[in-house]
């Protein structure tokens, strides 16, 4: 019992430190979350999971969608005229998320 109590106390003390590593939730997360989920786990078929993707990859991909280098009209419309700072916040947010296994689809 004593070991369990010590372990629980240790985890309780560590939680604020773990939360401090998480970037702040981006202001522009809403539209992205509609398809990719707030934590980067896809909400609709065909939308990729973004949780845990490399920061540099996400940052470049978002800029490429915005600038038209990646010609995906839905993504370009969703991103619109977003600043580099906003794109960076989104990339940081999704790269910091932990991927989770998804339950198989029900027939």
Automatic annotation (TrEMBL):
InterPro entries: Cyt_c-like_dom, Cyt_c-like_dom_sf, Cytochrome_c_Oxidase_Subunit. The keyword Electron transport applies. Residues 1-19 form the signal peptide. GO terms for molecular function: electron transfer activity; heme binding; metal ion binding. Residues 19-98 form the Cytochrome c domain. This is Cytochrome C. The keyword Endoplasmic reticulum does not apply. The lineage of its organism: Bacteria, Pseudomonadati, Pseudomonadota, Gammaproteobacteria, Lysobacterales. Keywords: Electron transport, Heme, Iron, Metal-binding, Signal, Transport. It comes from the Bacteria.
